[in-house]
Amino acid sequence: MTSVREVDLLAESAHAGQADKIGRPYIEHVRAVAAGLAPLGDELVMAGLLHDVVEDTHWTAEKLLAAGVPDRVVEIVEAVTNQPGMAYEEKIRRITADPAATLVKISDNAHNSHPDRAAQLPPDKRERLAARYRAARAALWPAARPADIESIVRIVNPSLLAELDEHRPATLAPSDAGPASK
Predict the structure, then answer these.
(1) Alpha-carbon distance 60 to 80, whole Å?
(2) Is 148 annotated in the active site?
(3) Which residues are paired to 19 by β-bridges?
(4) One of 6, 42, 43, 56 is an active-site residue; which one?
(5) Average pLDDT value for residue range 99-103
(6) pLDDT tens digits, 129-169
(7) Where are the alpha helices (DSSP H) in the chain?
């Protein structure tokens, strides 16, 4: 089985020379996504490192499998990969069918939404992407465990914690509920 370190090196090689929307080396983005997934296990870390490799490089799912990337990691990567002609909203709905892919996309969304990154975009693009990412969170977050979302957001983009609190259902712990009715 391929280790996280080997997958990191594969991602670094695959994304060599690529820059993200704000001109930073692309590997920084995939490493940030993977870092948010670290508390959830190596399989998700690997998927985070590779989440854009099929979409944005010469690598295919078949090549990843041949390189020794675990089958489940490749499945997750395929689940988050854009499909030609598929609307973004449909992609998000498709992703929510796979709990692991949902977590990878939540981490990706959190990093893409980071205020430091958004501030470097032109205002019109920043506003358009912010609306798109908010809409995606509205579909992604209900499909995941709140504790997992919080874990990811605390690492990748703590500014989203307030938004996460707004999405939590209002529940009381049994000790907070007061005396039981008889």
Answers:
(1) 13
(2) no
(3) 25
(4) 56
(5) 98
(6) 999 999 999 999 999 999 999 999 999 999 999 998 887 65
(7) 4-14, 26-37, 42-50, 53-56, 61-66, 71-80, 88-95, 99-112, 115-118, 123-140, 146-156, 161-167
